[in-house]
Amino acid sequence: MSQSTILVADDDTAIRTVLNQALSRAGYNVRLTSNAATLWRWVAEGEGDLVVTDIVMPDENAFELLPRIKRVRPELPIIVMSAQNTFMTAIKASERGAYDYLPKPFDLKELIATIGRALSEPRSKVMADHDQQDEAIPLVGRSPAMQDIYRVLARLMQTDLTVTIFGESGTGKELVARALHDYGKRRKGPFVAVNMAAIPRELIESELFGHERGAFTGAQHRSAGRFEQAEGGTLFLDEIGDMPMDAQTRLLRVLQQGEYTTVGGRTPIRTDVRIVAATNKDLKNLIRQGLFREDLFFRLNVVPIRLPPLRERTDDIPDLVRHFLVQAEREGLPVKTMENDALDVLKRHRWPGNVRELENLIRRLTALYPQETITADLIRHELDPIGDVEESERPAEEESLSNSVARHMTNLFNEFGDALPPPGLYHRVLREIEVPLIGAALGATNGNQIRAAELLGLNRNTLRKKIRDLQILVVRGPR
Prior knowledge:
By secondary structure, this protein is α/β, with parallel strands linked by helices. It has 4 domains: 5-120, Response regulator (Rossmann fold), CATH 3.40.50.2300; 146-306, Rossmann fold (3-Layer(aba) Sandwich); 311-393, Helicase, Ruva Protein, domain 3 (Orthogonal Bundle), CATH 1.10.8.60; 425-469, Arc Repressor Mutant, subunit A (Orthogonal Bundle). Helices cover 45% and strands 12% of the residues. It has helices at 13-25, 36-44, 62-72, 87-95, 108-120, 144-156, 173-182, 204-209, 226-229, 245-257, 283-288, 294-300, 317-330, 340-348, 354-368, 376-383, 401-416, 425-444, 449-456, 460-469, and strands spanning 5-9, 29-33, 50-54, 78-82, 100-103, 163-166, 191-195, 234-238, 259-260, 269-270, 274-279, 303-306, 337-338, 373-374. The strands form 4 sheets. A 5-stranded parallel beta sheet has the order 2-1-3-4-5, with helices on both faces. The longest helix is centred in the last third of the chain and has 20 residues, at 425-444. The relative contact order is 0.07.
């Protein structure tokens, strides 16, 4: 069997040398060039079985070369490398027909494994037509964790696979969902976002599937649900862990059969939407507590994406700060710069509110302070009231339930800024506390409701009614 030939284009002599040695040891023939013109000539002459190229070349950008290569040799796999390492780099590489994208510096073993997969897979000769995209970058960061996310997103853009995004509050789950829509095959359709935690549980089914006139008291006319509004596009189900059991059952049926009925309706309606879900909760733990359907979890969790908290990607803070400063300037706020010592202070902060907390801090600094340069002392002054920047170095202390709830409510109101959360906050908060409390008691007593009622200090009938009303699944363990 003849050896495959790899065409390598990079103007960095050291990188060409390393790639030549590694690929030769892996059993490939290697041809090296430092410019796009030579690479194009080789490809046009039919040489090579795979291309590995940097994006920035001295004579031409590889993004301009890739479409020409795919027109003359659509089956030729192309792996692009880049030190730019932004979300748009990964997206453009995918849109222009690259098999994969590797951020520099890259792992040689990963590159060789990627080449092996590319050469072994059948290649389609049809090239997708992509519209020109807005150059605005929806996701910011060059850390290894974000690079992994960019690569996954780039591979998902031309699919309709269901995605579940896991991450703490403020990590940017809706931004990822919007990026999947705005740069994917459904970008010409609507993007509809629904926050499960913000809708009273008795209205969730009507909100999702719509209702017919007279379906319930107050239904004076037919109302389209979010599935109907998202037809042909993407439906983003945020805080999916807060969806009640009845709605979970109906959602599962939609995912299985591709159709639904409105509340009060009888005729099934076919649906064509891509589902992207998100949660800041541990769904597997909710399954163990009987609060989330396991079969729905597997339907939603086709492609899981975990967004790291900001404390795990502090190298991205300078990029995020620059992005938010530019954004503030565009919105008419004063132009600011930040000194390096101030960035160091930001990197040492724990960021319980994640990227949203950082964004709000930058807006506050640009709006309230006259100084053109943001100093470390100014950062410390702003962060001290909500927790000393060295807090991560203190020994951890047990937080009381009361303090935890107070902190959670403070963060919740901060997220809404000058606005207020949707009505029904009292009952939503009680439900969030009551459901895991009862679930934990049932788990500790192996589903024995008599012992759980005694543990909770409730009447047995009261506990049974709450289990029924809150739709808590009781799983009995071994006696």
